[in-house]
Amino acid sequence: MTHQFITCETSEGVTTLTLNRPEVLNSFNTPMSAEVLAALAGADMDPRVRAVLLTGAGRGFCAGQDLAEVTAAPGGPAPDFAAHVRTVFNPMVRAIRQLEKPVVCAVNGVAAGAGASLALACDFVLASSSASFIQAFSKIGLVPDTGATYFLPRLVGLARATSMMLLAEKVTAAQALEYGMIYRVAEPEALTDEARRFAASLATQATVGLGLTKRLLNASLSNDLDAQLELEARLQAEAASTADHAEGIAAFQQKRAPRFEGR
Ligand code: T3D
User: Dihedral sign, CA of 27, 20, 128, 12?
Assistant: First the structure.
């Protein structure tokens, strides 16, 4: 598939999606979100893909919605924001959470609005030390979306989430790490290589087990203890039936590194 607003390439078991509208800090227009969704669906279906890396081209990661796209023409009808959020942003969040392969986000610069929200939906966020996160919505009279009100309070607690969302202050990468919002900070010039190496190493792990773990973590956000214990039992049986489990046990017994094949 050819892309106009992202680049997408696969190597070493990793599909790298790069948001590619650097002149507007990779803010989302509708076709860019459709391209991201199609690429995520492709990564889901291709058994050779065992991890996904999401990043941005140029100096920003993503400035959220392209505000030029949703500005009403003078005298024209107001855009349907609910429909827009449902069709443009929500499907990407669902696709990232439902993809049973690790999704790494390399935040190379500013992540604002839905761009900041999207990063938080990923499994691992590595950020450049020069990157920042801004819940920019309140500055333009909107409410946080793209899953921010779901993930952020769970990651950092209600007090910090409230201040980030109501004040729309810039959170540096170092603060984001301290608050537990992200996994790791890298020097700007090292971020790309570090994120690629990290994603490639995830792609050598027991992919089915990682995917089932992700399903458990998703469920843990709303299940009660009994439901979660039962789901763990059920998914443990599924993980135990994989070739990678057998390989992990054999490697342990033979005192060697496992060679997982993702099945
Ligand atoms: O249905 C719906 O649409 C609702 C959904 C909403 C989801 C959302 O994401 S709402 C929030 C939208 N995003 C924002 O409000 C952020 C807007 N951008 C900024 O506040 C700043 O650009 C940043 C803080 C992110 C970065 O500031 P800075 O000084 O580093 O860069 P800049 O000069 O402001 O931006 C560089 C260029 O990108 C500039 O264009 P120019 O002047 O060089 O031609 C700027 O206009 C453009 N740009 C930045 N963000 C957006 C954008 N263009 C369109 N849409 C943007 N979101």
Answer: positive
| CA triple 124-262-209, angle to 5 deg | 60
Tell me the one-letter amino acid at 223.
Answer: N
Q: What pTM value is reported for the model?
A: 0.97
Nearest CA to ligand 1 atom 37: 24
At 72 the pLDDT is 76
For residue 180, the CA-to-ligand 1 centroid distance in Å is 25
Contact of 128 with 109, CB cutoff 8 Å: yes
Asked whether residue 76 carries a pLDDT value surpassing 90, the answer given is: no
Q: Is 263 in contact with 47 (CB distance < 8 Å)?
A: yes
Ligand 1 pocket test: which of 5, 23, 24, 143 has the largest number of ligand atoms within 8 Å of its C-beta?
Answer: 24
**Using CA atoms, how far apart are residues 80 and 156, in angstroms rounded to an integer?**
31
Our answer on whether the CB atom of 151 is closer than 6 Å to any ligand 1 atom is no
